Amino acid sequence: MILNKVEAQDLHLWYGDFYALKGINFSIKKNTVAALIGPSGCGKSTFLRVFNRMNDLIDNVSIKGQALIDGKNIYGKELRVDELRKRVGMVFQKPNPFPKSIFENVAFGLRVNGIKHKTYIEERVEKSLQQAALWNEVKDKLNKSAFELSGGQQQRLCIARALAIEPQILLMDEPASALDPISTAKIEDLIYELKQEYTILIVTHNMQQASRVSDTTAFFYLGELIEHDNTKKIFTAPDKMQTQNYVTGRFG
Amino acid sequence: MIKHFLKDFKERFIEGVLFLSSTTTSILVVLIVVYLFKEGVGIFNRTPVAEGSELLVSAANKVNKLTADEVRKIFEQEFTKWNQVGGSDAEIELFRLDDITNYYTDEQLGENFENMPHCIDTILMQHPNMIAFVSKQYVLPNGRACKVSIDKIAVKQVMLGNRWYPTASPVVELGIWPLLLGTIWVSIGAILLALPFGLAAAIYMAEIADSRIRKILKPLIELLAGIPSVVYGFFGLVVMVPIIQQTFNLDVGQSALAGSIILGIMALPTIITISEDAIRNTPRAMREASLALGANHWQTIVRVVLPYSVSGITAAVILGIGRAIGETMAVLMVTGNAAVVPTSFLQPVRTIPATIAAELGEAPFGGIHFQALFFLGCMLFLLTFIINVIVEMLAPKKLKR
Ligand SMILES: Nc1ncnc2c1ncn2[C@@H]1O[C@H](COP(=O)(O)OP(=O)(O)O)[C@@H](O)[C@H]1O
Ligand SMILES: [Mg+2]
Questions:
Q1: Taking the CB of the first residue and of the last residue of chain A, which one, N or C, has fewer CB atoms within 10 A?
Q2: How many other C-beta atoms lie within 10 A of the C-beta of residue A196?
Q3: What is the CATH classification number for the domain harbouring B148?
Q4: Are residues B101 and B142 in the same domain?
Q5: Architecture, CATH, for domain A4-247
């Protein structure tokens, strides 16, 4: 049996006394793409942020149950959060490059990892920008501010930045929601490429996008995971009525 | 209809009042600045001869034009021969009003010194190598003696002059260079001391302290801003000055260092609160991006938060110092007020505001000294104005996304 790469077992999460995740059981295999869909406020981002422990930054969050990566509980005492985050990269909804040069943005993760070797950093930066399909557009202006890039380019820069430290898992929270259709298409192609090397969890509001890029799709509703199955099945013959209604656009 | 009209009228009335008050304020500010500069710049329209006095030489003397410096040297007897200032070979004879008794008796001078002008004129007639420094009222109109003409006060003399003796006679010396440097030294010293402590405190408050500690610290720091400056000065004089004196084994503890420490402490609240705001205003997305890449809290502070808030922090420092530069009382009390060009932080120095505060009371209205103090005021205004412009350029510049 192949070990699950990412897994949640009876996972509950509260923001203060707001019950945001209600006993989620979820798993995906290595090198697959899972799309998380569902109406706004149903807990998709919250669930995603469980796996790089971004929710730790928020006061009053309490968690029950288990979140596992490679079968190991990531909320265990012996685990170091910064080590975990090096293995689990994240791309946010709004492009959030640092106010630094393009090069320094991508090199950031390497530098905070204590890597000083100049040529290695240069190699990694180039490789990551290529993987993010941005290299050709920026190779002549690596020292320019990242803010000079367009929104779509900034988002691909953020992807490159996440890839630079070679994570195993990539969490993407509506990475294309703030972008134009051409940039969106580029990012979707990118996800398809990245699947070869990474395990990806992607939150999306866009049903077509979910069906195009993902292997499995999970439908969340009011803090519960209603159904998680092959993408094709979810979009054609889901088991649950709620899922059916949502994917056919009858609510949400 | 009427009701509508009334409402309209009321709104217009309020608008009018607001408009009036804002224009009056603006006009007032402009008037103050114009007055300041009119008085201050007026100094360059005067000769440096002490207020109400005149220098006279005998008509036979071919020197009738001297520089302020030459006059000073003559009366300090550094120059003793007229040929040192372009005249004949003869010795210079000095005459001050007090010397009159060597030449004339009280009876001869008259009950109310009414014969004084005539007597002085005669003395100068009889002594062709004499230079006299007398009050204007004792100069005989249409007399035979010749008034010495002296150049007006030059900008360069004032800006770069090393000597500040605004009440000297026969010629005043208005070099503001030591005062300007004193102000700048004390302020820079204050920055160097306040920046590390202020920044450390701001980082601690914004990033590390939990809300309970912050709730105690914040009002405490704000309290620091509320202490009257004379109290700081008193503290400095009684506590710090002796400590400095003992530590560095000085004759006097009043020094630029004492001033810098006091000003640094006074600038701290501004620096801390504004930097803390700047640090807090770093977008959450920036922190999350950094942490998500595996940076720890400290790396995030150093590599993301501080660079992001650097313009705010700079503004905080400059603003703190801008306030410190104009600070008078505390500095007056602890710096020793020696108007010499500073060469060490352990020497006494004198700042511009301290000079104005200490001397304005004894400067006759409208006189040279008075105008010189106004000119110092102009310089201080320019200094703080420049600082404000820098803040303006740095502070509100939102990093555009
Ligand atoms: N920091 C927070 N504090 C309190 N409640 C939160 C916080 N973040 C999210 N929530 C609540 O949790 C629920 C799920 O949020 P989220 O995971 O962002 O939803 P989604 O990404 O599916 O739109 C929402 O009702 C939201 O209001
Ligand atoms: Mg969301």
A1: N
A2: 7
A3: 3.40.190.10
A4: yes
A5: 3-Layer(aba) Sandwich (3.40)
Other beta carbons within 10 Å of A153:
22
Mark whether B144 and B236 lie in a shared domain: no
Asked if A71 is an interface residue toward chain B (Cβ–Cβ < 8 A), one would say: no
Q: Is residue B332 part of a domain?
A: yes
pLDDT band with cut points at 50, 70 and 90 for residue B199: very high
- B220 and B324 part of one domain: yes
- Choose the mutation target among B282, B286, B290, B293 for the interface with A, i.e. most A CBs under 10 Å: B293
Instruction: Say whether residue B287 is in contact with chain A using an 8 A CB cutoff.
Output: yes
Name the residue of A11, A36, A45 to mutate for ligand 1: max ligand atoms within 8 A of Cβ.
A45
Contact A89, A165 (CB under 8 A): yes
Give B285 to chain A, closest Cα distance, Å: 6
Residue with tokens 């700042």: B351
CB B190 within 8 A of CB B260: yes
Q: Is A19 on the interface with B (CB under 8 A)?
A: no
What is the DSSP pairing of strand A88-91 with strand A169-173?
A: parallel
Question: For chain B, what is the mean pLDDT?
Answer: 89
Residue contact B299–A112, C-beta within 8 A: yes
Residue A103: phi and psi, rounded to 5, are -60, -50
**CA distance between the termini of chain A:** 37
User: With a cut of 50, which residues of chain A have pLDDT below it?
Assistant: none
Question: What is the number of alpha carbons within 13 Å of residue A249 lying toward its C-beta?
Answer: 3
Same domain, B289 and B366: yes
Residues of chain A contacting B286 with CB distance shorter than 8 Å: 96, 98
Residues B293 and B349 in one domain: yes
Residue B6 domain flag: no
Of B287, B293, B401, the CB nearest to A108: B293
Closest partner CB to B295 (pick from A82, A90, A158): A82
Report yes or no: B105 at the A interface, CB cutoff 8 Å: no
The percent of residues above 90 in pLDDT, for chain B, comes to: 53
pLDDT at residue B399 greater than cutoff 80: no
Rounded average pLDDT over B57-71: 87
Q: Which of B135, B152, B169 is the last residue of a domain?
A: B152
Whether B308 is in a domain gets the answer yes
Tokens 């006494």 belong to residue = B348
Domain ranges of chain A: 4-247
Q: Tokens representing A126?
A: 């180039």
Q: Which domain holds residue B97?
A: 53-152
Measure the CA–CA gap between B249 and A192, rounded to whole angstroms: 75
* Residue B40, domain member (yes or no): no
Percent of chain B topping pLDDT 70: 98
- Say yes or no to pLDDT of B398 above 50: no
Is B359 found in the same domain as B244? Answer: yes
Q: In the prediction, which pLDDT does B112 show?
A: 82
**B117 and B260 housed in the same domain:** no
Residue B94 makes CB contacts below 8 A (sequence gap 6+) with B74, B75, B77, B130, B131, B133
Whether B391 shows a pLDDT value over 50: the answer reads: yes
Looking at the fold, whether B221 and B333 belong to one and the same domain comes out as yes
The complex's ipTM works out to 0.92
What's the number of domains chain B is made of? 2
What local confidence, expressed as pLDDT, does residue B290 receive?
96
| pLDDT reading at B187 higher than 50 | yes
**Nearest ligand 1 atom, CA A220:** 22
